[in-house]
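Tutorial, part two.
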Amino acid sequence: MNTRSTLLAALVFLALAPAALADKIPLADLSAYLNGLTTADTQFTQVNADGSVATGKLFLQRPGRARFEYAPPDKSLVLASGGQVAIFDAKSNQPPEQYPLARTPLNLILARNIDLARAKMVVAHLEDKTTTQVVVQDPDHPEYGTITLVFTANPVALRQWVISDDLGQQTTVILGDMHKGATYGASLFSINFEAQKRGL
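Running the prediction step on this input gives:
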C-alpha cells in the first residue's frame, strides 16, 4: 500500500472509529436526518483524486448553500449559492470558475427536500458493521456522477462523502463532528460578495 493509500485508510479509520456496531439505517431515517440538517459547520479533510490532501472548514445552509474554506497553504474557497458552484483560486486574480450546482452530485444533499426512496435515486444501500453507505445519483441525470454518503448510527450522523464525477474521478470529504443550528449571515455564501471583497 502506498503512502497516499495508507493516509486515506488512516483518515477513514479515525473518522469512523468511535462508531458502535450497527444495523443498516433505513433510507427513511437517513432522509429525515438530511432534511433536518438546516445549518451546520464542521472541520473537514479532503482527499483528492490525485492523492493530495487538504483540510478546512465547511459551512452548510440547506437548501442550496455551502462554503468550503481551505486552510493554508491552499487557502482556496468553494461556494455553492444561487444555483451555482464557484471556485475561488487563492493564487489567481481572475473571477471564480462557476458551474451549475444542479450538474454536481453535491446538489443531492443541498436539495430542499431529500427523498432517498425516490425511484432510481439510490444506486446502493450498504452496511459494513460500523457504517451505513448510500450511493446516490440524480435519477434524471445519472451521467452527472454519484455521491456516496457514509453515516454512523445512534444518533444518525453524516461522517463523510465520496463524489465520483462524470469522468470517474473520486473526491473524498471526511467530516468532523457537526455543530448544528447556528445562524449565518447571507454574505457568508454570497458569490458576488466574495468576488467584490477580492476585487474580482
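Residues 1-20 have pLDDT under 50 and may be disordered. In part three we will examine how such features are distributed along the chain.
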